[in-house]
Design a protein that fits this description.
With 94 residues, the protein is α+β, with helices and mostly antiparallel strands. The protein has one domain. The protein is 28% helix and 11% strand. The protein has 3 helices and 4 strands, in the order H-H-E-H-E-E-E. The strands form 2 sheets. Strands 1-2 form a two-stranded parallel sheet. It has a two-stranded antiparallel sheet with strand order 3-4.
Length: 94
């Protein structure tokens, strides 16, 4: 694990890389799907990932923490279709 200690580096991670989708699904997914049909697809966030799977396809790589708006739990929502799932537990600093 690498911890970003630089304030500059942390601020750079706050900006979206690639295509940031501003519309609600399914319109947002349909728009991106038509332009980037065969591209390597990375999703960040539970809702984005689940909507992408529902309205398009399983992403090549997805980052999910099963929390929406920082509330634990997704009401039984499940992302399926991935070849591999890696679970990571963040340890709290002491």
């Amino acid at each position: 694990m690498y911890v970003l200690t630089s304030k500059w580096a942390r601020s750079m991670m706050a900006w979206p890389l690639g295509i940031a989708i501003s519309r609600e699904a399914p319109d947002s997914i349909i728009r991106v799907r038509s332009e980037y049909e065969k591209s390597f697809l990375i999703t960040v966030g539970d809702v984005v990932t689940l909507n992408t799977i529902k309205y398009w396809r399983v992403p090549n790589l997805a980052f999910m923490d099963l929390k929406t708006r920082r509330t634990i739990g997704m009401g039984g929502a499940e992302a399926t279709g991935f070849d591999e799932v890696i679970s990571i537990v963040n340890s709290r600093p002491r």
